[in-house]
Amino acid sequence: MSRAFLLGLAWRSAWNRRFTLALTVFSIALSTFMLLGVERVRTDLRSSFSSAVSGTDLIVGARTGSVQLLLYSVFHVGAATNNIRWSSVEALEQLRGVAWVVPLSLGDSHRGFPVLGTTPAYFAHFRYGEQQPLQLREGQRFRDLYEVVIGAELADRLGYRIGQRIALAHGTGEISLGAGHDDKPFTISGILARTGTPVDRTAHISLEAMEALHVDWMAGAPLPGKSISAEEARALQLQPRSVTAALVGLHNRAAVFSVQRQVNNFGAEPLMSVLPGVALDELWDVVGAGEQALLLMSGLVALVSMAGLMSVILAGLNERRRELAVLRTVGASPWQVLALLALEGILLTLAGMALGLLALVICVLAFNPWLQAHFGLTLDLRQVTSMQWLLLAGLLLAGWLASLLPGWRAYRLSLADGLSPRI
Amino acid sequence: MFPPSLIPGLATVRALALAAGVLATALPAAAHPHAHTHGHMDLAVAIDAQTVTLALEGPLDGFLGFERAPRNDAERKRVADMVARLKAADGLFQPDAAAGCRLQKVELDSAVLGLRGAHGHGHDHDGKAEHADIAVDIVFTCTRAAQARFIDAKPLFEAYPRLRSIDVQVAAPQKQFRRTLGPRAARLDLAGR
């Protein structure tokens, strides 16, 4: 029996069953979409995590967990248990091998966005991603005491422009608890270019401004009957007494462990220092467990749709017994029947995967701006991970095997019972 | 509409990231190197243009099976064997041949055994402590340190079966990261990423 004739028949048979088959293709497409989508999010979440800080050799803070120190100093999540003294920051600068120190002071917020008090050195030394420096989208760095440089996300979300005046709030809550710094408004002097890191959500002021905000405060509340106006505060000594943490850069990257040892054994107060890259890996160890669960879930989805594929073909097989038996009587060998079914299975799987991929590409393109704005996550379609190739190959193999089982059944049954008149 | 299958995924991931913040407080801090867990050691690897420095630190138990000054000839021999073996550190840690490394020096530091390194580690035990640690500083001089793709610690795990895991912090010129080595995964991968 000629191959072309057989294929033509198979095609017409498939066309006859197009609605069932379309459903199968759709379920394969869905599992392809899920598996690859989750894998994509997983990989890119990791890289956007680790791009949050680079070029910093050590983060120094009060003794706490290393992940916690990373979370509050870089991601502005959670709070420090203790501050470190300004004298300690000065001592850090004197350590052998230390090139620069950028002090960070946290604790205030503006409408739910964190406020970071720092020095101009922050803009010079802070790096993200692949050693990229911070750049201003418009305006300039803070020069005056009451100037603030805001991240791109903060600016876009609240619709802020250069020159606008904003008030900062005490504490980190979304809702101001009545205790604000309304008496000392800040002027927006600059807006940073988007980085895809926590910097985008942060308002940056000088350490002195942070101090000025709190000169008439004591123990977290305004001092009653004692109010120092914005102009009066300028005249005061605004040297900070303590900061939350400090970023440290070294002349020689490899000296990091000896500097770390010196910091951890610091005499004047208990300090600790972590390597940001190492702390990120530790953080990922925790998140990674959930991430594995996510991958497992999408694996199960794939399994379910493979089972669906198999059941659709098996169910169709009962209807097709006659068809296959007729094929056998007109001269098709059992092998040809098997090959036909296997071919149909692999084509279905391929079509489903192609559809799923297409859907993924469209979704990523369509929703990337939204993801970037809400999660600081950029999905990169161009970098296909080895895991993704593996997943694709696995899907193809599974789809093909799923279609082989019914094929094998058809191979055994095709002539035996298909021609009997009862159906 | 947003594809429904992606939203729960993302929400979960975000929740996980937040959960990590909560869990973080429960995590052991790698920066406190003095937790004393038998079978476990900490290793810091610094890679420079010309040198690869390894600082291994952990309970003496991992090397000796006891943690005090030797009391008889058999124990003294064990200590002497350990010192000799650690001094020949290139037999325990083998950097990628592509880096062209050779062992420059090894310093041992263990108060209980009366071994003092040149710079000390500032963790003198007063002798009454129940447990005792050892610190081993190893320096390799290399012609092309940056070319090293791995450091093999398999001989170390073979020589000391009591050693079950090593937490490794790596500071290379372009990246910092963390790895865990064990008898089954004894090769420290420096490439990748």
Automatic annotation (TrEMBL), chain A:
Keywords (A to Z) from UniProt: Cell membrane, Membrane, Transmembrane, Transmembrane helix
Location(s), subcellular: Cell membrane
Name by which UniProt lists this protein: ABC transporter permease
Membrane-spanning parts: 293-317, 338-367, 387-405
Keyword Heme: no
Pfam families per record: FtsX (PF02687), MacB_PCD (PF12704)
Domain MacB-like periplasmic core, residue spans: 22-213
Main localisation: membrane
InterPro entries listed in its UniProt record: ABC-4/HrtB_transporter, ABC3_permease_C, MacB_PCD
Residues in ABC3 transporter permease C-terminal domain copies: 296-414
Membrane topology: Multi-pass membrane protein
From TrEMBL, chain B:
Highest rank taxon of the organism: Bacteria
Keywords from the named record: Signal
Signal sequence annotation: 1-31
Family matches, as InterPro entries: ZrgA-like
Xref: Pfam families: ZrgA (PF10986)
Protein name: DUF2796 domain-containing protein
Source organism of the structure: Comamonas endophytica
